């Protein structure tokens, strides 16, 4: 395992979560403690083990590619924080 | 007091026209009025809507008679605030969803409606189902009906407290690492986590998609069997739902467990196991022996690695699943000068501390340079844990353990120490990693303290029939499930 050293500000930025300074400080010590605990997995020999992504693996579950009813336009917009003209309003994305 | 009765009692009397769905619903509403100011199991509920559904159920029964094909007709079922119910609020006990109203029904809700259930209320939980006490709810902590100074467990704490306090007849919870079984144990109810894939997750807000499973919390095992039969089955909208036929679960409750092989995992005798809990579970095992079961010790050698494995896999999946809460399409928004700033500010203001902690941990274990060391390794250890169970189930039919190491702890006792809180899930977490099924049934009370203790029974994938048969045989040989909390 790698050493339990986490750059909270950097990871929070990857996760798109703005943290207050006191939150960041608290998370640093809590996450260090948790990461130290999970270090114990390093003691196990996992060579040759297949990873389990799903406990009950099913493969190639598909349905016929037919047109089916889905969420109505107005239902999809119903919970939007800002909308106009049947669209979500977002900040400017391109200059 | 109709609200105190089980589904099977009430439906028998409904079928004979002794009582009405309106009377049942009104008794639940009266109880909510009486105790929920203190228990705080419900985040919101709509009495007029519940009574309208009850009247519709009464009209159906009057018109068509009792129909065995609709086994929940007229029964109020309360829902954890993580499943979509059309035109009801959905918050996941988080601020980030704002005033979200669900535009559709989850498959589990559709099935409950098709069975005739009255869908009523939104039950409190840990925010996004992350926690073991409901203290992570953005809307306040639910209290344990057996002792209002204590937590009801979590994350489905509202679901367990509402059933224990007789504020509903049954409820729906979700279980990612014990979130049905642990609160059911701490509140003295029956809580069933089905095999992964048994119940469709369509319309369930995802926390950790490879671990999440919907299940019932009920007043006895027969009700759990009944609910499971209604909820189970393949759903084309959830590609992980399993195609296996759905047995008539209530019909399998024969009371006979003679010759059944019960395994006791030796690794579950951990130092933190409370002596009262141990005493009750030992007595329950003796009861199973008395009923004719063969008991033997088994080994699940990788038990000690389960909590660490879980907190890597669950947080990794959560960090991806919760990316959808970005302030663009639904819920609250905190404006920014560009999309990235809007996302960060919205998520910084909308998520609570535990959710932030888990998203950041999950982002870290998936990030470049750490993925192999943490996430991939945890997935490999998950294979070892799963193999432990599959090997054990070659020797025994079910495993029996305590559901929790201790009875309900006090509000605030573990709130500042996330790792301590995580370690309290030690007996329930492996079941989700292995994708097997598990149930918690009441098996005693602490003395002094009078707090409920839960017995956990674990079964192999799709082993619900056996699981329920054992749980039912045990339950029927005791009176623990009949006890009511001292709540006036």
Low-confidence stretches of chain A: none
Widest beta sheet: strand line-up of chain A: 1-2
Mean pLDDT value of chain A = 90
- List low-pLDDT spans of chain B: none
CATH topology of the largest domain in chain B: Amidase signature (AS) enzymes
Number of helices, counting only DSSP H or I runs of 4 residues or more of chain B: 15
First and last CA, distance of chain A? 44 Å
Strand and helix order of chain B:
HHEHEHEHEHEEHEHEHHHHEHHEEH
Largest beta-sheet details of chain A:
2 strands, antiparallel
Mean pLDDT of chain B: 97
- Could you give the order of strands across the largest sheet of chain B? 1-3-2-4-6-5-10-11-9-7-8
Shape of chain A: flat
Report the principal-axis shape of chain B.
Answer: globular
Q: Show the largest interface.
A: A-B, 54 and 78 residues
Structural summary, described in words:
The complex is a heterodimer of chains A (95) and B (488). With 95 residues, chain A is mainly alpha-helical. Chain A has a domain at 8-42. Chain A is built from three helices and two strands. Chain A has helices spanning 8-14, 21-38, 73-77; strands spanning 83-84, 87-88. A two-stranded antiparallel ribbon of chain A has the order 1-2. In chain A, a hairpin with a 2-residue loop joins strand 1 and strand 2 (87-88). The two termini of chain A are 44 Å apart. The model of chain A has no long low-confidence stretch (mean pLDDT 90). Chain B contains 15 helices and eleven strands. Chain B is globular. Chain B has two domains: 2-260 and 469-482, Amidase signature (AS) enzymes (Alpha-Beta Complex); 304-381, no CATH class. Chain B has an eleven-stranded mixed sheet. In chain B, helix 9 crosses helix 12 (371-395). Chain B is of the alpha/beta class and 488 residues long. The mean pLDDT of chain B is 97. The two termini of chain B are 13 Å apart. Chain B has helices at 7-15, 21-39, 47-64, 107-114, 157-164, 181-187, 221-231, 275-290, 306-321, 339-350, 353-366, 371-395, 418-423, 429-434, 464-476; strands at residues 42-44, 76-80, 118-123, 170-175, 190-193, 213-218, 261-265, 294-298, 398-402, 437-445, 452-459. The chains are: A mainly alpha (95), B alpha/beta (488). Chains A and B meet through helix 1 and helix 2 of A and helix 9, helix 10, helix 11, helix 12 and helix 13 of B.
């Amino acid at each position: 395992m790698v050493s339990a050293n986490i750059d909270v500000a950097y990871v929070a930025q990857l996760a798109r979560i703005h943290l207050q300074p006191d939150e960041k400080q608290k998370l640093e010590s809590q996450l260090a403690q948790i990461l130290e605990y999970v270090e114990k997995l390093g003691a196990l020999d996992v060579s040759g083990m297949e990873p389990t992504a799903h406990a009950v693996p099913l493969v190639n579950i598909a349905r016929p590619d037919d047109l089916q009813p889905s969420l109505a336009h107005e239902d999809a917009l119903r919970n939007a924080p800002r909308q106009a003209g049947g669209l979500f309003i977002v900040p400017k994305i391109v200059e | 007091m109709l609200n105190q009765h089980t589904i099977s009692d009430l439906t028998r009397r409904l079928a004979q026209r002794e009582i009405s769905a309106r009377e049942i619903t009104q008794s639940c509403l009266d109880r909510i009025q009486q105790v929920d100011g203190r228990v705080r199991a419900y985040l919101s509920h709509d009495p007029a809507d519940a009574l309208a559904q009850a009247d519709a159920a009464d009209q159906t029964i009057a018109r068509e008679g009792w129909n065995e094909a609709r086994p929940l007709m007229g029964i109020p079922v309360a829902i954890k605030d993580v499943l979509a119910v059309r035109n009801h609020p959905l918050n996941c006990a988080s601020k980030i969803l704002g005033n979200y109203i669900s535009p559709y029904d989850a498959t589990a809700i559709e099935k409950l409606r098709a069975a005739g259930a009255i869908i009523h209320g939104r039950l409190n939980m840990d925010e996004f189902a992350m926690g073991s006490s409901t203290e992570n709810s953005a809307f306040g902590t639910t209290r344990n009906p057996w002792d209002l100074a204590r937590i009801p467990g979590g994350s489905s704490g509202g679901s367990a407290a509402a059933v224990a306090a007789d504020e509903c007849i049954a409820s729906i919870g979700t279980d990612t690492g014990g979130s049905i079984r642990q609160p059911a144990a701490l509140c003295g109810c029956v809580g069933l986590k089905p095999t992964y894939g048994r119940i469709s997750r369509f319309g369930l807000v995802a926390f950790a998609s490879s671990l999440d499973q919907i299940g019932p919390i009920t007043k006895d095992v027969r009700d759990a069997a009944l609910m499971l039969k209604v909820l189970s089955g393949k759903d084309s909208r959830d590609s992980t739902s399993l195609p296996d036929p759905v047995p008539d679960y209530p019909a399998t409750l024969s009371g006979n467990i003679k010759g059944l092989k019960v395994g006791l995992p030796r690794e579950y005798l951990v130092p933190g196991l409370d002596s009262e809990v141990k005493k009750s579970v030992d007595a329950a095992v003796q009861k199973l022996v008395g009923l004719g079961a063969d008991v033997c010790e088994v080994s699940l050698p990788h038990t000690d690695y389960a909590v660490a494995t879980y907190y890597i896999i669950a947080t990794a999946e959560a960090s991806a699943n919760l990316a959808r809460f970005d302030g663009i399409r639904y819920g609250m928004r905190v404006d920014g000068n560009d999309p990235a700033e809007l996302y960060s500010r919205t998520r910084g203001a909308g998520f609570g501390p535990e959710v932030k902690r888990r998203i950041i941990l999950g982002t870290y274990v998936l990030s470049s340079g750490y993925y192999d060391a943490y996430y991939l390794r945890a997935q490999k250890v998950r294979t070892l844990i799963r193999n432990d169970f599959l090997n054990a189930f070659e020797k025994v039919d079910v495993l029996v353990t305590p559901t929790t190491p201790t009875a309900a702890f006090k509000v605030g006792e573990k709130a500042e120490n996330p790792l301590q809180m995580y370690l309290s899930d030690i007996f329930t977490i492996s079941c989700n990693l292995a994708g097997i099924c598990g149930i918690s049934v009441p098996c005693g009370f602490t003395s002094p303290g009078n707090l409920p203790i839960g017995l956990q029974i674990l079964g192999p994938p799709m082993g619900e029939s056996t699981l329920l048969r054992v749980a039912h045989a045990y339950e029927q040989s005791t009176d623990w499930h009949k006890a009511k909390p001292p709540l006036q």
